[in-house]
Amino acid sequence: MSPLIEMVGITKTLKGQQEPRVILDGVDLTVDRGESVAILGRSGSGKSTLLSLIGLFDRPDDGHYFMNGRDLARIPERKAAALRSAEFGFVFQRFFLLKHLTAAQNVAMALVNGQGWLPRRHRRARVLEALDQVGIAHLAKQRPAKLSGGEQQRVAVARALVRSPSLLLADEPTGALDTETGNLVIEVMRAATDRGCGLILVTHDHAHAAKMQRVLSLSDGVLT
Amino acid sequence: MIRLSGRFRSALIIGGQGIRSRKLRTFLSMISLFLGVLAVVTVQAGAETAKTLRLADLELHIGKDGTRQMYIPSMPDAMDAALTTVAGKADAVGVMGYQAIIGEPNVVPINQGAAPFDNTDGGYYGPPMQMDCNPMTGECRPIKDEQAAQPTRGQAVELVLQGLTGDIRQFRPFRPVAGNWLDFSGDPSYSPRLVLNKEAAKGFTRYQIPAEMRVEGATANPTPRIVGVVDDGNSQPTAYVRVDEMRNWMPKTTANQMYGPGMQLLFAPTAGETEALVVRKITALGVSRDMLHVETINARKDIAEELAIIRWIFLGMAGLVLLIGVAGILNVGLATVGERVEEFALRRAVGTPRSLLAGIVLAETLLTGLLTAAAAIGLGVVAIDVGAGLFGSRVPQLQDLTFPWQAGVAGVIAGLVAGLLGGLIPAIRAARIPIATVMRA
Questions:
Q1: Are residues B226 and B163 in the same domain?
Q2: Contact A112 B356 (CB under 8 A)
Q3: Which of B207, B316, B368, B375 has its Cβ near the most Cβ atoms within 10 Å?
Q4: Residues A138-193: pLDDT tens digits?
């Protein structure tokens, strides 16, 4: 069975500074369906840069990036947007919930994004299903201001899961949460891997990393 | 197609959410734009209303657009042929002008020369010049005042009498004021029935006028009956009468001599056959075709040219006011995009294409423009309703005044254009926000 994603010889250099700085230097990475991978590394080691390349926020300077056998290293932005919508789910350290929308509307944001159209009834069902997966369906009508940090992050996870992505990318999702709440969020994301969704977790927290199937370390632009 | 539709709907939904979440800002944008859109609506409504009123006045004075006017020279046989040809026709009317005095005999009319009653002493409506003509040589000379008979002024009014072969209102839509219009269906009466215009009615209201009518060339003085009053837009006292009721009192020989300046025929645009028949009959009498002057009324075109310049000047001024509103929307739009950088970056991260981000911002400004246009149009409708109610009794043309649809369309276009112009730059900025913003946050 082919892997979900495969990165070969990925390099990325930060330009625009006095001297170009190599952030990723020939990174190879493979993630299978339903696999969970943790990436550890110091601040500035390039973890977030790697995540932005995997999530098609940016493109590598060199190397190949395959997803389902298709090379995405030079994919145009229009197609990248469609792939971000269909294949990826994102969870960030900050929750990025829109305060004027309810929890359900925040989750629905990933469905009302111009990539196809779902009738309102179907949208509502998908949103409630996603909120149920993270255990907060009862808070669907609450606005973010009424939710705790953990609940807000779970809404963000539901937003990432609502399109049933192939790969969940989490960039330090527990950074703003206490340990107990952080554990809860990690468990929610891990549960998604049981349904076949891949998970890449970028974190500083070794305890959270240990819960993943594989733990990788990024140092000096090299992933080991 | 489905994809476009999805993007369009998404833009509307998200744009609507944006407006609801920033009500105060939307309201402030609307205020800055309101005067501009209102100016455009007002100019357009004013221009259309002025055009309608001017057109209504011209229709009263000259006739409806497309009406063919033919002037028959003052030749008795030609006029007789024209009259008999158009008599009883539904699509053509002959108009013969007479001068009539109604009231006491042997007195100078109150408004000599058929002058308006508020201007009986001045203007060009003075007494007709008295001439002494030599029947042998045909030479004429003016009679000095002291030689002319100087009867005293008495209870009599002088009118322009328009003898009609049919209902002229199909060509000149007189507004009914009181009573009835002339009935052309029955036999002519020996007591000519008159419909007065408002100025003539003023004379009969103001003075005690005996019902005796003197018309030059008549064998006797008939007793007229006033059956109605109309507004014909004419400031000169005028009465309308069936031409056959006048001709009862005029033997053919006399009538032929008294036709004066000739007659006018009015033809509907569909009356080509009748017009051609009149021309054939008259030219058969030896009248040259060149002497039959025919023209088509095209008042709409005339006033369109007349009003176009004024309209463009005012639209230019309205455009400047609108531009200020656009600057307001632009300012608020840029500030809003600046505040929503993270939201737009996040939307891109979840797969929203750049074009939809631009569409969201444009949808918000376009919806704001439309809401403003609706408010301006609503105010315009109310203002015209109130204005027509308040001034309709004094200015009859205002009674039927309605908000012109062209002004509504102009308002909507102005709102959309302002929304588009004001939202364009913020939309481009929103589309260019890098996704990495969410990673760096």
A1: yes
A2: no
A3: B368
A4: 888 999 999 988 888 889 989 988 888 989 999 888 887 788 888 888 888 888 88
Q: Which of B274, B296, B318 is the last residue of a domain?
A: B296
Residue B91 identity: D
Same domain, B390 and B337: yes
Amino acid at A132: D
Give helix B354-391 / helix B299-339 axis angle, nearest 10°.
Answer: 130
Q: Are both B402 and B273 inside the same structural domain?
A: no
Decide if pLDDT at B251 tops 80.
no
Cβ burial of B204 (10 Å; 0-12, 13-18, 19+) is buried
d(CA A161, CA A139): 17
- Count the domains in chain B: 2
Over the stretch A58-82, which tens digit does the pLDDT of each residue have?
888 888 999 887 888 888 888 888 8
Min distance B35 CA to chain A CA atoms (Å): 30
pLDDT the model gives residue B215: 86
Q: Does A128 touch chain B (CB under 8 A)?
A: no
B292 and B305 both lie in a single domain: no
Closest-CA distance of chain B to residue A100, Å: 6
Do B439 and A57 make contact, defined as CB atoms within 8 angstroms?
A: yes
Q: From the CA of A101, how many Å to the nearest CA of chain B? A: 8
- Chain B residues inside the 8 Å CB shell of A114: 3, 6-7, 10-11, 351-353, 355-356, 359
Domain span holding position B33: 2-61+301-440
Average pLDDT, chain B: 82
Cβ atoms of B341 and B437 closer than 8 Å: yes
Mean pLDDT computed over A3-27: 83
